[in-house]
Amino acid sequence: MRDYLFLMHDDTTQLSGEAGLDWAHYLARLREAGVLQGGSAIGAGLCARKSDPPPAVTKHLTGFIRIAAANLVDAQAWLAGNPVYEAGGTVEIRELPRTD
Q1: What is the pLDDT of residues 53-63, one digit of tens each?
Q2: Range of the structural domain that residue 65 is part of
Q3: φ/ψ of residue 28, rounded to 5
Q4: pTM for the full model?
Q5: What residues pair up with 46 in beta bridges, in sequence order?
Q6: Share of the chain above pLDDT 90, in %
Q7: Number of domains in the chain
Q8: What is the separation, in whole angstroms, between the first and last Cα of the chain?
């Protein structure tokens, strides 16, 4: 199994409640399947750089979920029920490569 991040963007076309889904139901489904590795909303922050002015924080990211999946296609299948995805928003899927 590999680890993947779902990065939720702030670009939904409808409220997640209108999609008839909620975070508690979706996360419970991931938890019951044993694929949920964690996640959180993303709050305010800053970018830091030792020299030169740092860039602005990426404002369109609102949260993340970490899951375990066999491959990218399997990870993408777990988007079903994600409130951001179901409300027409973007969910970026990124693999977390092992570095050991």
Answers
A1: 999 998 899 99
A2: 2-96
A3: -65, -40
A4: 0.86
A5: none
A6: 76
A7: 1
A8: 15
For residues 76 and 70, what is the distance between their CA atoms, to the nearest angstrom? 11
Compute CA distances 72 → 11, 42, 99, whole Å.
22, 23, 18
Indicate the residue type of 69: A
Spatial distance between the Cα atoms of 11 and 71, rounded to a whole number of angstroms: 26
Residue 15 has pLDDT above 70, yes or no: no
24/17 Cα distance (integer angstroms): 12
Burial class of residue 89 in the structure, from the number of CB atoms within 10 Å of its CB (0-12 exposed, 13-18 middle, 19+ buried): buried
CATH number for the domain spanning 59: value is: 3.30.70.1060
Task: Give pLDDT, residue 21.
Answer: 60
Q: Cα–Cα–Cα angle for 91, 36, 27, nearest 5°?
A: 70
